[in-house]
Amino acid sequence: MRLRQGWYALGMVGGLVLAGCEKQQEPPTVPLNVPAVPAPTNTVPREGSAPTTATPPVERVLDTGSAQAPVGSTQGTDGKASAPVDAGNGPVDAGSALAADATWTLETVEKKRSEPPSVTMSSVRTGTHEGYDRTVFEFAGPRLPGYQVSYVKTPVQDCGSGDDVPVPGKAALQVRFTRAQAHNEQGQATVAQRTFKPALPSVLELARLCAFEGEVTWVLGTTRRAPFRVLELTNPTRLVLDVQH
Questions:
Q1: Which end of the chain is more exposed for a tag (fewer CB within 10 A), N or C?
Q2: What residue ranges define each of the domains in the chain, with the CATH number in brackets?
Q3: Which residues, other chains included, contact 152 with Cβ-Cβ below 8 Å and sequence gap of 6+?
Q4: What's the pLDDT tens digit per position in 191-235?
Q5: Which range among 70-79, 123-132, 199-208 shows the weakest confidence by mean pLDDT?
Q6: Is the pTM here over 0.70, yes or no?
Q7: Whole-angstrom Cα distance, residue 202 to residue 148?
Q8: 19-28, 163-172, 210-219: lowest mean pLDDT where?
Q9: Which stretches does the entry tag as region Disordered (predicted)?
Q10: Mean pLDDT across the stretch 46-73?
Q11: Cα separation of 216 and 147, whole Å?
């Protein structure tokens, strides 16, 4: 009887030791209060709606190249570019150039490109953000056409008929694309709507002035001659024009 009790006690001790070992070998659980992953650097808010802290930035800046004037730099009548924009202090991804901090300006912003063939504009859209209105010109393919952005005298003219095109507001901000088109290979318009009336705090109306012989030109009727900035974005390929409120 004592021998049987001894074996029983020994079995109980062995079971407890084994359970303790198994408990020690259990993998640690993942805590529920893991901090959120921070948003990537060198990004700008998605166009079309005001940015919020709950939505991380998603758009990266397209490489602007070094042969021409940097995006956001200004050019005067002598054709010489002013000092480049502040590229920021954060790291820049390979193949990207930071233009999210492009200088706000009232001067002409120009990027010349002559690579054939023409690049097709696929859409135009607008939205408002805190402190500025955003207009986005999207293009098919991996590259942007050349462009010039500047305030122009009013009234502006349609490039085909030469007729005056009335735009509301006290200023007209013109965006002229070269080596660009707004139709597909079948001759159908890729941006059928020629005017937009978003009635935003700064941008009151957009009107297409030209889509002819490799040139596509839009004009923005603005409430005043407000500072603007230009960004080149990728995935998809876009030229972004922000106008301060």
A1: N
A2: 43-244 (2.60.40.3500)
A3: 172, 173, 174, 219
A4: 989 999 999 999 999 999 999 989 999 999 999 999 999 999 999
A5: 70-79
A6: no
A7: 20
A8: 19-28
A9: 27-60
A10: 38
A11: 9
C-alpha span between 193 and 108 (Å, rounded)? 26
Residue with tokens 């990266």: 60
In whole angstroms, give the CA distance from residue 133 to residue 138: 16
Mean pLDDT over each residue of the chain, to the nearest integer: 73
CA distance readout (Å), 189 to 98, 177, 194, 196, 197 = 33, 16, 10, 16, 19
User: Taken in order 76, 151, 157, 237, is the CA torsion positive or negative?
Assistant: positive
